[in-house]
Prior knowledge:
With 274 residues, this protein is α/β, with parallel strands linked by helices. Helix content is 34%, strand content 23%. It has a domain at 1-90 and 183-274: P-loop containing nucleotide triphosphate hydrolases (Rossmann fold).
Amino acid sequence: MTDSPDGRLSPEFQLEVQGLFLQFGGVQVLADVSAGVRQGEILAIIGPNGAGKTCLLNCINRFYHPSEGKIIFEGRDITPLRPYRIPELGIARTFQNVELFKGMTVLDNIKLGRHVHLSTGLFSAGFYFGNARRTELALRKEIEETIIDLLEIEHIRKRIVGTLPYGLQKRVELARALAMKPRLLLLDEPVTGMNLEETEDIARFILDIHDEWGVTIVLIEHDMGVVMDISDRVCVLDFGVKIAEGPPEEIRHNEQVIKAYLGEEDLAYSRLGA
């Protein structure tokens, strides 16, 4: 990563955070965090529990407002924007805990992801005719032929989400994020709680999204096997401070990173993700 003379990150980044500080009461959650992700890159953010990883994503999509610092997306300062404006810019998000409408079908949940891009008038939408009907049919066709096919969930598209196992619900949440047509996708622990087969499937889907759709991805994950296998670069937080950043192989052998995860006494005996 290169810095300009005034300390700002290079404009080569599609998304960059500059000197973010975040605190709740007297607790410092993020302290002068700067990082960036290039267009078309997969950046993993890792760190022990409580390191501030999810808080960083919450700042990016404006759930939290940092006390200091800026968030720049495609050259635009988005720090002042309200949360509902972020999806309109092409930034989509999945969550650590599944956030779906459990009483609705898989297909209806996915379609909700596109609402930020729809412009149907109130009258035609209310009576479901004309442009509203054409838009709905086109959206359904696109979702079924692209997203549902990509994530291999055709067999559950009419199922009620609340009746599905956890692994499939996570897949539906990813599908809803893709329905937003993102240029940047924020994934918060996408494989947490999954078995080995489900983890391998999600990792494969993430790579497919990256390769076939050209989507930039910022990924928070505790599964070091997944992180090391699919990431282009890794950013490491510890107690709200960035302690390392670089290629996966470099991070794997970084002693400060290993110490943060394992403690001083285990430093000489282990290597992260080995």
